[in-house]
Amino acid sequence: MKENAELTRQRLIAAARQVFLEHGVSRTTMEHIAVQAGATRGAIYWHFDNKIELFQAMREQVFLPLIDRMDDTLLVEGSEDPLTCIENFLCGTIQVLTDSIETREIYEIMMIKCEYVGEFASVLPQIMVNCSGIANKMQLAYERAQAQDQLHLSHDPAQLAVDTHLFFIGLLHMWVKDTNGDQFRCRAIELVKAHMRLRRR
């Protein structure tokens, strides 16, 4: 029974992703998603109270693995130097977008198919909390780099972390919009490496 319920839940999330992608979040209703999933109204409301809950569940499918990759890459004090750890995390995220259609579609929905107004304005504070968490973990890596004398003397780890985070968010936005792949997608890894080289002493 639990397995069937989870399968239905995942089918609803997948259906929401497809309808959000095609029509945009604001123009999508719970009924649209139920029809796409081949489910009843009762089934969709049994799993999700509203469209925001469905959106958040879809978002977690990419954000939770992102956090795991970030912890595994940025917080590991191993053989690789901290700046390489940051570079690997950024390049790894680009690679996931390249390899996973599902991840790519969810990023597209979050970045260009959703208006964070009205009921969805409540999503923004959580996004800001998540962004702060990413920047804080980058700062820890930059602080380790500073301790290893890898940064220019004028560089402040906190400022570098915010700068890298904003650079990468901007790159992701342009990567998602570059559907032909001939402007940013083809150069994303190169741009990340250039960004990180500027930090090295």
Automatic annotation (TrEMBL):
Annotated keywords: DNA-binding, Repressor, Transcription, Transcription regulation
SUPFAM superfamilies (alphabetical): Homeodomain-like
The keyword Cytoplasm belongs to this UniProt entry's keyword annotation: no
Species annotation: Nitrosovibrio tenuis
UniProt keyword Repeat present: no
One Pfam family cited in the UniProt record for this chain: TetR_N
Protein name: Transcriptional regulator, TetR family
DNA-binding region: 29-48
Transmembrane regions listed in the UniProt entry: none
GO molecular function: DNA binding
Domain of life: Bacteria
Domain HTH tetR-type: 6-66
